[in-house]
Amino acid sequence: MNEELNFKKILPIAIIIGAVLVVIIFWSRMTVTIPGGHGGVLFKLFAGGIDTEQTYSEGFHFLAPWNKMYVYETRQQEIAEEMNVLSSNGLEISVDFSAWYQPKFDEIGKLHATIGQEYLRRIIIPALRSAARSVVGRYTPEQIYSSKRDAIQVEIFDETRTLLDERHVQINQILIRSITLPPTIKTAIESKLKQEQEALEYEFKLDKALQEAERQRIDAEGKAIANKILSASITEQILREKGIEATLELSKSPNTKVVVIGNKDGLPLILGDTK
Questions:
Q1: Burial code of 235-258, b = ≥16 C-beta within 10 A, e = fewer?
Q2: For residues 138 and 81, is the Cβ–Cβ distance under 8 A?
Q3: Nearest CA to 124 among 156, 90, 88?
Q4: What is the rounded average pLDDT of the residues 244-248?
Q5: What average pLDDT does the segment 161-184 reach?
Q6: What is the Cα–Cα distance from 262 to 269, expressed in whole angstroms?
Q7: 34: pLDDT strictly greater than 90
Q8: Contact 116, 50 (CB under 8 A)
Q9: Phi/psi at 138 (5° precision)
Q10: What pLDDT does residue 90 have?
Q11: Average pLDDT of 107-132?
Q12: Cα–Cα distance for residue pair 29/23, rounded to 1 Å
């Protein structure tokens, strides 16, 4: 009887101790802390596998010990790539560029189910390389070196985004850090660009000289027309009247002795000094 009573007393204690031991042993499998800038995907062992509909946010979470939480970084990340590609005329060009990417937060479950945590290696890098080869292959080295760098950057971004459409990740930006041409090609392009610049400078100077010559011609023609009009308007009578007016003005000066003598044209002749 006493043994039965002791058993009844020990059994609850044993159950409690056993439960505590189970919790201690499986605590690390029953809880998970998702750090900042990350999201979680839950794998349910006895309930259909990966939960593709819910993404667990950062913080502390309880889960059954037979389930598992996979954690993904959801912040923007960067991948740098340097690769050799062929231009439109078959010359090898080295392109060094970076890509900003991140998984789509609400689609991490689908990303885990279809691609997995190695999505950078499995889909992003191949897409970047394919887009870079395709875009650079449309341009000549001269275009790449001189004027098409920004266009190439935009086109690589657009093609990469198209390749990754419906793949549960997003590309935020493509940045070309450098494009390296073979030394002989670079030297030839620089020489050609220099010659083109000199030709443009010569054309500018020539246009400027022609404009100045035209301006001088128009100015000379204007002066000639003005002189012609002025000459046509001056008569002998006008000159005589102007001479008389000038003589009268001089005669009014108190410091001048004037002797007026008629000249052959009938105009006064003024002789005098200031003494």
A1: eeeeeeeebeeeeeeeeeeeeeee
A2: no
A3: 156
A4: 65
A5: 89
A6: 6
A7: yes
A8: no
A9: -90, -10
A10: 80
A11: 94
A12: 9
Using CA atoms of 120, 80, 170, 88 in order, give the dihedral in degrees to the nearest 10. -110
pTM here is: 0.61
Provide the pLDDT for residue 182.
Answer: 72
Which residue shows structure tokens 């450098």? 178
HEC states along the chain? CHHHHHHHHHHHHHHHHHHHHHHHHHHHHHEEEECCCEEEEEEECCCCEECCCCCECCEEEECCCCCEEEEEECCCEEEEEEEEEECCCCCEEEEEEEEEEEECHHHHHHHHHHCCCCHHHHHHHHHHHHHHHHHHCCCCHHHHHHCCHHHHHHHHHHHHHHHCCCCCEEEEEEEEEEEECCHHHHHHHHHHHHHHHHHHHHHHHHHHHHHHHHHHHHHHHHHHHHHHHHHHHCCHHHHHHHHHHHHHHHHCCCCCCCEEEECCCCCEEEECCCC
- Find the mean pLDDT for residues 37-49: 92
Per-chain mean pLDDT for the chain: 79
Domain boundaries, the chain: 2-73, 77-181, 241-271
For residue 28, which amino acid is it? Answer: S
What is the homologous superfamily of the domain 77-181 according to CATH? Answer: Band 7 domain (3.30.479.30)
- What is the pLDDT confidence band of residue 240, given thresholds at 50, 70 and 90? low
User: d(Cα 149, Cα 9) in Å, to the nearest integer?
Assistant: 82
Distance CA 275, CA 131 (A): 102
Nearest CA-CA partner of 178 in 99, 97, 100, 98: 97
